[in-house]
Amino acid sequence: IQSKLPEVSTSIFSVMSGLAAAHQALNLSQGFPDFESDPKLIALQHKAMLSNKNQYAPMPGIFDLRKEISKKMELLYGVSYHPETEITVTAGATQAIFTAIAATIKKDDEVIIFKPAYDSYEPSIRVFGGKVISYQIDPETFEINWVEVEQLITSKTKMVIINTPHNPSGQIMAKNDMKQLERILKGTNIVLLSDEVYEHIIFDGEQHQTAALFPALAERTFITASFGKTFHNTGWKVGYCLAPSNLMAEFRKVHQFNVFSVHHPTQVALAQYLKTPTNYLELNSFYQKKRDLFLSLLKESRFKFVPSKGTYFQLLNFKEITSESDFDFAMRLTKEQKIASIPISVFNKHHLDTHVLRFCFAKTDDTLKKAAEILCNI
Ligand code: PMP
Ligand code: GLN
């Protein structure tokens, strides 16, 4: 067949995790914890499996889980998403992103994305014939010039995709960024996809600026979220999508023929687990401690960094260590020093190389200490 995605090869996450395994390296590349999910949550899933919850769940997700997600949005942000018509449970955020794009994008539609960008956006747009319009975020300051973004909008712009807290930079959208975006999109037919998978991992007392808080955004936005990131079980692949009912109706038309519904016992367990808000409210301080430990141990290293503001990723600049490309350096570190990371040029426009690697600190303190020891000797 003629490839629909000729430019796509194996994802960097598979490449680096594969290399880490082959070389028995510490794996701080792909974003997942090296510790277990709460045994209480695992027990809830086990219980659901023993209680006859092993057949198809309802297409949009079990009502109890949608109700708990709705209550969480009310509690955290004072916004209302109706469980019946505005919330759908998905097979991770990846499927929510793909389905939102599939429901919206036709051939030649333009989609504005911000680089560095999570790797699934671009192929998901292209596979439906959409055209990716990239805006490169300033690699030094990570600031977005909204006047420049506005200039990228044409009559063909169908969607804008944002991600806050941002993978891989660890930056967050400020209230003013969201206000600027709201100003630009107000009065247009442009749909917003707001990828908020790290909403519960944000540091130093900052507030997550969900698109749901901005009325002129909320009315046009698919918000995507991931329980894997929040409850330390990325392998369960359960997430969800929030959107106003007109958008959600289109989303579900695709969702029902994409997966139809997702893992039933996990939904039962998550619904129960969400009833205790501390289960997600404590995540910020949990990960802030890990970020602070990792960075305090790296003080003596030759890497330069600005502390991550959110996500469980930390960028480390290696300009003073070597002039190798980030890709070559990441490969060499994995093979020779036994520590794996992600070169971030793969997420940049024209693969711009800023000599920066991404390290995942969703790791036990012991792993972080071992990692820092290696990095301090480089
Ligand atoms: N968006 C971003 C920004 C991510 O980092 C990830 C990786 N977790 C996803 C989406 C996909 O999430 P999930 O694993 O739930 O599919
Ligand atoms: N979101 C994870 C990361 O950024 C990886 C997810 C994946 O492997 N597809 O590392």
From TrEMBL:
A family per Pfam: Aminotran_1_2
Record domain Aminotransferase class I/classII large: where: 26-374
Cofactor(s) annotated in UniProt: pyridoxal 5'-phosphate
Annotated protein name in UniProt: Methionine aminotransferase
Record keyword Transferase present: yes
Lineage top rank: taxon: Bacteria
Signal sequence region: none
SUPFAM superfamilies linked to this entry: PLP-dependent transferases
Coiled-coil region(s): none
NCBIfam families tied to this protein: PRK09082.1, PRK12414.1
Keywords per UniProt: Aminotransferase, Pyridoxal phosphate, Transferase
Record-level Gene Ontology MF annotations: transaminase activity
Taxon lineage: Bacteria, Pseudomonadati, Bacteroidota, Flavobacteriia, Flavobacteriales
